[in-house]
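Input set for joint prediction.
Command: fold jointly, output tokens.
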Amino acid sequence: MLRYRLKPAPGVKLPRVPLGRRLKRDFQRNRYVYLMLIPVLLFFILFRYGPMKNMIIAFQDYKPAKGIAGSRFVGFKNFETFFKSRDFFRLIRNTLLLSLYSIVFHFPLPILLALMINEVRHSGFKRVVQTVSYMPHFISVVVISGLLRNFVSSDGIINSMIGALNPAWSRTNLLAYPEYYRTIHILSSMWQEVGWDSIIYLATLSTIDPQLYEAAYIDGASKLQRILHVTLPGLVPVITVQFIMRVGRVMGVGYEKILLLYNPGIYETSDVIQTYLYRYTLLNNKYSLGAAVGVFNSLVNIFILVTVNTTFKRFTEDSLW
Amino acid sequence: MAIVERKTAGERTLHAGNIILLIILTVIFLYPMWHCLMASFSDPLSLIGYKGFIFKPMGFSLRGYETVFKNQNIMIGYKNTLIYVVGGTALSMVLTVLGGYCLARRQMMFKRVITLAIVLTMYVDFGLIPAFLNVRDLHLYDTRWAIILPVAINTYNLIVMRTAFSVLPPSLEESAMIDGANDFVILVRIQLPLVKATMAVVLLFYAVGMWNSWYSAAIYLLDRSKFPLQLFLREILIANANSTMAEANSVDGMQFLDELIKYCSIIVSTVPILIAYPFVQKYFVTGVMIGSVKE
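tokens >
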């Protein structure tokens, strides 16, 4: 029972084996594989594709007591309710702005950090910097949010630091003002994830052929020129793929942190689609509206992912698919 | 041929600046947890109204830890979190290893279709409400299974595991096959020892993910005796956490201990992870790189 058949010589055509026979052979060869696959497939069918059938309630006036079968179809009414609600514009704006700021300010930093760590020659120091910079990634979002609330409170160290720089500053809880929320959100995410996000770039840097650097050095390239013309081009494929994946998550801002940080006073800048789904639709049992918002959210997300990937595919050699 | 670099003055300045900047960054990365750790050993009264940095304990007291370890909620949370982490991670590892091995088979008729269907779930999300109704319809609502089962396989981890299996040389299993070994034997006896590094990373990802998770518990659990640590922690740390949590958020009603208790509960809930992760750290590069290999 060999799994690997020999390929026929070029030009030799073997008679095509009928499907039934191939199925039977495949099943015999892989019967244990299929047996092992059953629990895995069961998981994906139950928990990943299972929710798919519930999307239909986006087009219904769903009543839990009646179930999906007994609930009335209402067409696009739930979508209309969402599009016409006061919150719609605010949710879209906040979601997109938080993502945009994160892409503009956060995305380049891990690349910079990787370049900086890569320049360190002392391996002990290098290891310490890496270990410490990955650490925040493993701290739970509840702890991060608790700490943040403490640090930005009127007695917190952030107020002390601002006060040291600006004597006119009066202490205040920064989470009470909508204008500060985005800054707090983005900066804290940077603190938590920059080190972790730099791993992939660091790993890629170690694969760049040292001969390239030597050649550039012999040709008289300065350190900066070597970074610009050898290191960065070596990183471009990884940066591109990371960028597409980042943009593909554009609708998925760090909503768990928002849920733990925000309050009605700053919904203006902090309420995003995912937090609205939880607070407004799930806790109020507005399931149909929530499903409609979810469908809208997924469609926008897929649209953006496909657009960005297609664009990159057209202009560069690197893309997700 | 190695080249000994002659550095110009500018390059030396750049290098020194780089080191200094990295030292500053390291301090920034480290400080918040250091602040917590030092504050947690401080005298409760000295913390009240204190506005500055904390580099060493202010006074010394273990009152915070005494109160935290006597607190029922924290202990219930700890017990539940251990159940979720141990049970969930064990289930996740079994499923992920099985799935990774199967998807790495070289001759299997439905491999492409199955792989595609699985990878798609990384990009397509059906939303919170459909997932919630799904768990409810499966009668998992307000059971411990609701915390473990819906996240039993992380697709990214599955792909990492699959890649680790698929880079093993095919001759390994061919020779085992000829000796009459079936897939279970090949997986357990021959291939598992070779993918230990990847398994360590995946295991850490699952364990940390479960240890830190609070959102699915907030959605799926009503019964406080099943709450994981992070949910109780939320009540302690985040005062206006949620109107549905009517219970008092102060651990024992002694106001002056509140600050100290916050710091102590952060340390108690975070230290296990911070101790565990450096042991696995050397494998991170393997894990992250393998996961980024595209199809």
